[in-house]
Design a protein that fits this description.
5-stranded parallel β-sheet; 8 helices
């Protein structure tokens, strides 16, 4: 059914064209969600037959403008300056507002990170326009509506809600990391880089970044290339030590299903799934995990999935590239021992899993 009502008069948004993606960076290194959003934005732009644009803000970040082209952008807006090295809401939002007002994109996408949420919220408030947060699906209706269909889990993750912005432009959304697939990096790809000036002088910025203390020892599942995740089949807190040992040997992180988090066996920062993180690692171990939809939507995009479960009919085997039917308390130590053996022989232990 069309999202347009028969008697509803759509405003004239013909001046607004194009899809714009914010490339988030820290210390000159882009967040992976930025390239993932360019992949999603490319599909939207192709459907609407408009250019895919990106914008990069920071200090000495010209290389990221080139990278954005390699990852699918047709045009990249670049604003550089020493006062833009660290993210601050006021200068970044002023630059973005000026960019949107001058170039009028019909869709703007941001990562659902701390920075992306803050910047997108500030922009939407000033324009003003609508903002859909933490989307997991993006699509568009063709001409004449050209509506962004931004979908996200709702009602305690039990259903999906598609949110529309019919009366304002641009249409804006933040998207979870790991949900969308980035395009293959193509260093031969050509595009346009447009330099833009910073409208805010240093003395006009009310806040100052004195120091940035990197938090260590925390879990970052969204960036992890290897995840060893456990489910209800572990039976308690202690078995997670087995998973931690395997993850440490592989240089990965420990994940968990919602059941484990709800039971208090492990912290929420380890949770994979609809109410946790969506991940795309190169290697994902699903150990003692049944394969409920709530969990699989968060890890189905993994390059290689290895499932270990004593129930040969567990749904997780439908998603796994490799399945082991057996006792995890025997299988996990055996795999860990093999990884240690290969490392001692100066071999790459992940090659056994065809990562």
């Amino acid at each position: 059914m069309s999202t347009e009502q028969n008697n509803e008069q759509m405003p004239d948004w013909s001046q607004y064209r194009g899809v714009l993606v914010f490339v988030e960076q820290r210390n000159g290194i882009a967040k992976k969600v930025s390239w993932q959003l360019l992949g999603a934005g490319k599909k939207l732009a192709d459907k609407l037959e408009v250019p895919l644009m990106a914008f990069v803000i920071g200090d000495e970040v010209g290389h990221l403008a080139e990278e954005a082209i390699y990852y699918g952008a047709d045009r990249v807006f670049l604003c550089q300056g020493s006062e833009l090295r660290d993210y601050r809401t006021r200068p970044y939002s002023r630059i973005t507002l000026k960019l949107i007002e001058e170039h009028k994109p019909e869709i703007c996408l941001f990562g659902a990170t701390g920075t992306g949420r803050d910047l997108a919220g500030a922009i939407a408030t000033h324009l003003p326009t609508g903002l859909t947060a933490d989307t997991t699906e993006l699509d568009v209706e063709p001409h004449p509506s050209r509506l962004l269909l931004a979908s996200r889990p709702a009602f305690s993750e039990k259903m999906m809600a598609t949110i529309l912005c019919k009366q304002y432009r641009p249409q804006m959304a933040t998207a979870r990391a790991g949900v969308f697939q980035s395009l293959p990096r193509d260093p031969e790809r050509k595009g346009e880089i447009v330099l833009i000036a910073n409208p805010t002088e240093g003395e006009q910025i009310a806040t100052e970044v004195v120091n940035f203390i990197e938090q260590t020892g925390t879990v970052n599942l969204e960036e992890a290339e290897i995840i060893v995740a456990g489910g209800r089949g572990l039976g308690g807190v202690e078995p997670f030590r087995l998973l931690k040992e395997l993850a440490d040997e592989l240089g990965g992180q420990v994940g968990a299903s919602r059941a484990c988090v709800d039971a208090g066996w492990i912290a929420h920062e380890h949770q994979v799934g609809q109410t946790g993180y969506t991940v795309r690692p190169k290697l994902y171990f699903a150990i003692g995990i049944s394969g409920a939809v709530q969990h699989t939507v968060g890890m189905a995009g993994s390059d290689v999935i290895i499932a270990i479960n004593k129930d040969e009919n567990a749904p997780i085997f439908q998603f796994a590239h490799y399945g082991i039917v057996g006792d995890l308390f025997q299988m996990v130590p055996a795999i860990t021992a093999e990884v240690k053996k290969r490392k001692a022989a100066k071999e790459d232990p992940t090659m056994a899993f065809k990562v």
